[in-house]
Amino acid sequence: MNENNLSVALTGFGGLDNPEPGLAVARSLRAGWNDPLEIEALCYDTWNTGAWMPKIADRIHLVVPIAKGDDAVLARLKEIHAKHPFQALIPCLDLEVPAISRLSRRLDRMGVKTLLPAPEDAIAVSKANLPNFCYANGMRTPRTLHVRDLEDVPLYAERFGFPLFVKGTVAGAKKVNNATQAAYAAAELNAKWGGGVLLQEAIDGEEYVVGMVARADESCLALSPMRKLGVNKRGKGVVGAIIDNPALRKEALRILAKLHWRGPLELEFVQSERDGRFYLLEVNCRFPSWIFLTQFAGANLPGLFLNEVLGTNKRLQKKGKVGTAFVRDVQEVAISIKDHKDLKRFGTIKAPESQKRRAKKGPLTVAVTGVSAFELTQPGLGVAQALHYVPEVGQVFAFAYGAYDTGLQRHDIFDAGFQIPPDDESDAALLDRLEDIQKNNGLDIIIPNLDGEINRFQNIERDLKKLNIDLLIPSKKAFKAIRKDILFAPKSQQHWGGFELTPSKIVKSRKDVRAAWDQFGSPLMLKGQSFGATMAYSLRQAEDVWDLYQEDDQKLIIAQPVIYGEEFGMGVVCDRNHNVTESLTIKKLLMCEQGKTWGAVSMQLPELQKSLSAFLKHIGWVGPADAEFIRDAVSDQYYLIEINPRLPAWNGFGAMQGNDLTREIIKITSKSSIVSKSNNEEMLFLRAAEELPTYASSLALFANRGEKHNG
Amino acid sequence: MKSTYKLSSRVRLDEDDDGVSGVLFDTHTAAISTCNETALVILKSLKKGSDVDSLARLVAKTFEVNEKDAKLDIVSLLRDLTTLEFVCERE
Q1: Which long-range contacts (CB under 8 A, 24 or more apart) does A159-164 make?
Q2: Domain containing A195: what range?
Q3: Pick from A438, A638, A674, B57: most CB atoms within 10 A?
């Protein structure tokens, strides 16, 4: 460490698609501190992907879990501090705050500053205690009940009425509409956090959050209110904008005065449609994960906090520009496996350098669909990233379905974004739109990346060809062959040499659910024909899951036994003769709660690839495919889970480490003689969330105009 | 006495680069309304303050439409904007 540099230690670099705040705090300090600064990333395991992102941490350290006790935690911090001194420590996880607060005097004697509430003040506003705190202090909050015995959840849920929120005691919340859903959600959340669950009435209204920093004297240093503009199905704010609402500000300051707070916090509110008042939902005793927005808006709360803690007297702006917005997208990197292993072995490593990306210079204009991380990380983001490694490509366009498609803000990978008609509009409307885009901007190749749109592009493929726009997609016959109810039908060929099809039963009724239960036992995997995969541990649960799929209008589901083992993904590209001409296989090492890959290593599995190639030849496949396998931990048998008719979402990894499926598509469609590079097995793929700046007005203008141009 | 209308300080009018469209942004709630050319002309006038008759004359002249029809549309727009607390009415 440069002795003249300030150094700050941060936690909270995990969380995957529900990111912990540490990465956003680090980004804020990097962008807004404006003086030399070093960041020590403190992680509980090597899979905190945020710490590995380029230009974030100077060093990454493994630290002791809070559960090991204050002395153990302090001992490790002392050890790190002795070799890499840091002047401030910012804990970014709720559970850490009381512990670090207890240690604050000892840390101060070491020369490490903190600014945190007293432990009892943090505990007083925990999720389970907040209702009592609000009652004692005259604050509006939704009716909430802590239910410790899960058997009581359906009863109390019925008494609350629906809809209702079921919340974990530490984190997580699910909105439910009946007792069945409540029971299922409670089981999931309690399994993760323990302590029962909280049932909370659902108040109709818009959600607002306020990020704040309190001084040592408990007064407000700065606050930044934000309205969640785009909330995904898991209730996470993925798009938000800075506002200036006097009533909200007044309420936030009133609450702060009662909290006896020091340091960062986040207040979550809902403004009731019924009475217009703000109801306090949660108090989080750390910076929120959207905090990078405050840097975009010009009032960097982590910077203000650090300035306050260290007494550095920088002149920093405190009021953010109203209307500044963020969208949450993803960032992907390839790091060396050696670095990952070294962190595990030595506990501290220097953070790896960032990779450089080549500039695109070629003549081709390529458009990709599936450009959002709003719900799940769609494959188009990785595809667009990979296209930057293809020298034949000059421009990359994002084809979006709405203003909240997060990739529209990725100026680093998209030259322009265009809105295309959704699937409830006609094929003719889509064709007209594409023709218009080509006429005004040029367009040579489209790479569709969403399963549900392949059919539409199949319908207009010939017309696009007449416009000299190329696609590489399967025929309707081949596409049908990978549909779950066809692929896993009893009459399908089950054995393919290197893999077998997962044993399956097509379920069309409750009776079929019971038959599947009798055949496969527990746990039972139930998959929707179109989407969804849920495990059931009892017949009752399996029947509840069937009811949930019925509510989603999925009349046919596939039941399979759960197979335990490592999961693999194989991305391939087939040419027009149905031969696999390029492939990339990964072993999935890190998956988010939605089952998507956030960490992986590349592998060579030649027998498996040979068998998949034979299968794809058999069904006459053309274009990209993403096959998912599981290797039984006991028998080592590979089972096919599903095949998706597009490139995998982790496709960007291939380009980063020299094995590029996207490039193969360009090669086949443009009939060029691109030479692919060899595979490097020594890299690890990692993904983390990334907040991108925009303006609320820009989002609206895109919705109005249907296009935007970057650069 | 004629009522004059003025855009509330809680809303901000952002014009697009082309000058013929824009966005009305509510700073309290981040609610956004996109504005076509006609709405933009009206809202720009409301920034300084105006009355219904003046607005009707402006729209009729700018877009070569019937002043009576313009007035009906303007009254309807002002009613909506008042409900949203985006304009203040002064006697």
Answers
A1: A160/A199, A160/A201, A161/A201, A162/A202, A163/A202, A164/A199, A164/A200, A164/A201, A164/A202
A2: 143-201
A3: A638
